[in-house]
Amino acid sequence: MNALKTLAVSAALVAGAMGAANASTIYTSDIDTSGAQVEFGTIVADAPATLALYDYTGGVKGKLISTVNIDAGYNSDVRVPTNSVVLQEVKAELSVGGAVVDSAVIDYN
Q1: Contact 39, 82 (CB under 8 A)
Q2: In this structure, are residues 43 and 52 in contact, taking their beta carbons and an 8 Å threshold?
Q3: How remote is the C-alpha of 99 from its chain's centroid?
Q4: Domain boundaries, the chain
Q5: Parts of the chain with a pLDDT under 50
């Protein structure tokens, strides 16, 4: 059984293209980084979306690690492979229609 690591997580909502708040959200309470993937407990998207993981070492958005498609609606147990990349921090970005609507920084320390 994978043990959950202690995570330092910050999330920021980004206003939608029309200036209204967006309902798409990365819930950060159940994130597991103990394997060769990042497991997200729940992600909600108001339309088909993409979840992308980037290296975020030193607080700087770096190389794209991996992406997965997210269905519109409630998505549980979303898994994004990290391809055994050694990481300190990653930034998850949820995009709908090409616009980032939510993000979370995940600390592996």
Answers
A1: no
A2: no
A3: 14
A4: 20-107
A5: 1-21
Q: Which tens digits make up the pLDDT trace of 24-46?
A: 888 877 788 877 888 888 999 99
β-bridge partners, 10: 105
- 8 A C-beta contact, residue 51 and residue 92: yes
Find, among 22, 67, 26, 24, the residue nearest to 48 by Cα. Answer: 24
* Residue 89 CB coordination number (10 Å): 18
Q: What is the CATH number of domain 20-107?
A: 2.60.40
Q: In what order do the strands lie in the sheet with 89-96?
A: 9-13, 99-107, 89-96, 49-55, 64-70
Instruction: Say if CB 100 and CB 94 are below 8 A apart.
Output: yes
Secondary structure, 3-state, the chain? CCCCCCCCEEEEECCCCCCCCCCCEEECCCCECCCCEEEEEEEEECCCEEEEEEECHHHCCCCEEEEEEECCEEEEEEEEECCCCCCCEEEEEEEECCEEEEEEEEECC
